[in-house]
Amino acid sequence: MSPAGPAPAGAFLLPPRPEGRTWLWGGLLAGSLFGLGEILAPRLSGLVLPPRVAFAIAAADALAVATLAVAIDVVLRGLGRRPSHSELAGWMLAPLLALTAIAPLLPELGAEGGGWLAGLTIAVGAGLAVGGGFLASVMGGHLERAGRAVWGPLLWTGVAALIALSEAVRLAPLEPRRAVPGLVVAALVVAIGLALAIRSGASPLGGRAPGGPRFARAVAWTWLAIAAVALAPWLTPWLLSDESAPLPDRRCLVLVVMPPAGPDAPRGSEAAWDLAAGAGVRLEVLDPEGRGERSLLAPGREPPLAVSLAARGWETAALVADPRLGAHAVGAEHVDRRPGPAALLAETSPALAGAALLRRAGAPLLERLDLARPHRTPQELADSARAWLLRWRVSGAPRPFALVFDARVADAMPAPDAVAAAVEQLLAELDTLQVADRSVVVAVRHEPARAGLAAAVRGAALPGRPTTAGDLGRAILEVVTAEGTPDLADVVAPR
Question: Are residues 52 and 137 in the same domain?
């Protein structure tokens, strides 16, 4: 047999048909890119997801898209179809569109009065998603046979970015949650996705398969990006910290609100209180108004403590573990009352597909992942305090601060060991930022049996002997705003 002659001009080699593992890795890559967009979308609307919630949402998206991609491969093989790589890239739009249009409606299935409408909408959304994936695959096949490859990661990134933008609009505080219905968004993404498919292929294939191991490496890089986005709000201030930044010339205030005492308090609560109180002056004050810690934070008819300090130039903040409690209404300029994972998933599930998938998975999985809490843990609250303190430190303005750290939880008692560790981390952060020696730390807790508050003050001397919560609040304001450093010999002796 004579040797084959040179290939005709313009000829190219088609790559082999993708195997099953290529569909799996392609689905994981597309789903990971989709998850990356979903954890970025809340940032565009001003909502910061805790790392645990962000990782869970991204993982749910990746697993869902990969599962649907493998299912598409099985169905196509059953029909005797073996799509090319460019057709695979187009078919992968179907799971992305399905999650966008269907997943936010999954928690409504079975709901009284709205289940049938959700089911009908899901059926229409599924048909739209399959139709969009089919049209994109047909376009990809035509492009590949013409010698122009559709690069899947580029196509999936563009579609994921468009979906993330639409989700950010739905999460925006000034926009109704359902302002852009999922089906309309999916239809728009289908049209733009087809345009991206036409423009994304620009080089002959040359017989080289674009999937397989290269998809796996891309998945690893995508998850590094997911980790960076999830951890950035907590790492960025630390990376920017500068020990040479100016320090305030006035006293700072840290007010730690501890869980209440009483017969229902778990074992170890007294040890946690002793850690928070430290070597400070311990007082027991009455609460004639019966408002608990609010009697100290906002004494009588006077302005709240935070408002009085803000008027004098202090930077004020309140960090609340449970948004159901009222400590966030103390007049602070910055109020961090972010809900726990369960409430956060419920809040974002109308827009984020990953959050809706986690909610639909049920309570057992959420409890196993520690995402069934309506409140934040003491450790999460301590991490938020650390991030806020670091941002204050790198702001460059030597303004003193007043920080309320409220570790209470409604309808539950946090573990004393966790509370003690969070308080210890907070105090260590003050020392790290070189403001411990110029801070007044006040620990306070409600004692229902004595109809009053127990308080401990460290770092300053109190004028006189406060007898009520309101008097203690006014004394703290006087100490913090006083010029110079009081003589520690004037510290009030424990009662």
Answer: yes
| Same domain membership, residue 314 and residue 201 | no
- 450, part of any domain: yes
Residue with tokens 């933008």, as numbered in its chain: 165
SS3 call for 210: coil
204: closest CA among 281, 253, 243, 149?
149
> DSSP letters of 39-95?
HHHHHHTT-PPPHHHHHHHHHHHHHHHHHHHHHHHHHHHHTT----HHHHHHHTHHH
How many domains does the chain divide into? Answer: 2
Q: What's phi and psi for 468, nearest 5 deg?
A: -125, 165
d(CA 362, CA 371): 11
Q: Last residue of a domain, which of 175, 208, 238?
A: 238
H-helix segments, 180-212? 182-200
Per-residue pLDDT at 184: 46
Are 299 and 444 in a shared domain?
yes
Is residue 267, in this structure, part of any structural domain at all? yes
Residues 230, 39 contacting (CB under 8 angstroms): yes
* Residue that is written with structure tokens 């602070």 in the block: 332
Torsion sign (Cα): 417, 423, 427, 433: positive
Q: Provide the strand spans (E) within 152-251.
A: none
Confidence (pLDDT) at 172 = 64
Tokens of 10: 């313009």
Length of the chain: 495
For residue 372, the 8-state DSSP code is -
Last residue of a domain, one of 174, 205, 238: 238
Specify the pLDDT at position 107. 66
Q: Is residue 128 part of a domain?
A: yes
What SS3 class is residue 474?
Answer: helix
Residues of the chain with pLDDT below 50 are 1-2, 4-5, 7, 9-13, 113, 174-210, 485-495
Phi-psi map region of 492: left, alpha, beta (phi>0 left; psi -120 to 50 alpha)? beta
Please give the structure tokens belonging to residue 447.
Answer: 């004692």
pLDDT at 241: 56
Matching residue, tokens 């089919």 = 134
Residues 6+ apart with CB under 8 A from 461: 479, 486, 487, 488, 489, 490, 491, 492
Contact indicator for 357, 56 with CB cutoff of 8 Å? no
* Residue 225: Cβ-neighbour burial (10 angstroms; 0-12, 13-18, 19+): middle
- The answer on 209 and 144 residing in a single domain is yes
Q: Domain of 446: which CATH number?
A: 3.40.720.10
Adjacent-strand bridge partners of 403: 254, 317
Q: How far apart are CA 130 and CA 139, in angstroms?
A: 14
Answer yes or no: is 348 within a domain: no
Q: Which residues contact 217 (CB under 8 A, 6 or more apart)?
A: none
**Structure tokens, 427:** 């105090």
What range defines the domain where residue 458 resides? 244-339+376-490
Asked if 471 contacts 288 with a C-beta cutoff of 8 angstroms, the reply is no
User: Structure tokens of 343?
Assistant: 């409430």
